[in-house]
Amino acid sequence: MQNYFELFDLETSFFIDDNQLKSSYRKEISRFHPDNYVTKSESEKIQALQNTSLLNSAYTSLKSPLNRASYLLKLEGLDPFDERDTAMNQDFLISQIGLREELEDLEEDRDSIGLEDFMERIDLHIEKNTESIYKAFEFKSDLMDIRMNVRELKFYDQLYKEANKLIDELL
Fold this sequence. Notes:
- The chain is built from seven helices and no strands.
- By secondary structure, it is an all-alpha fold.
- Helix 3 (42-63) packs across helix 4 and helix 5 runs antiparallel to helix 6 (112-138).
- The protein is globular.
């Protein structure tokens, strides 16, 4: 597996400078801009397109804490979203069911005010999980604990996106 941090001259770490990542990405992506390959051979154009695709994937994998944590776990040989591994904290699973039901009720009632409150609460969960992941990497916690936090963060992130889409439909 290629190390995406190396593509942008970054240390392989959860703690990266977002501005440095963005700057490195822009610098690298500009090298493969199609205008630079107008007079090049077809194989060079294809290679530039493949490099652009790789850089885009790398940037997406590193720019958000959720994706970056997931990627770091994968570098350690641990896929946080392995479909064969369904172990989750029982309290979290019960909470997950309750939140999904609450979102369905808000949708059914077309309750935009309740939905805004719901989104604020989900945002707090996102902040809490993100902070837990930061601390876990800072203190070099067990990878399985980090994996659990990443899985929970992904749930909250997806739930927030669904609620946001719903609020757009209601307004």
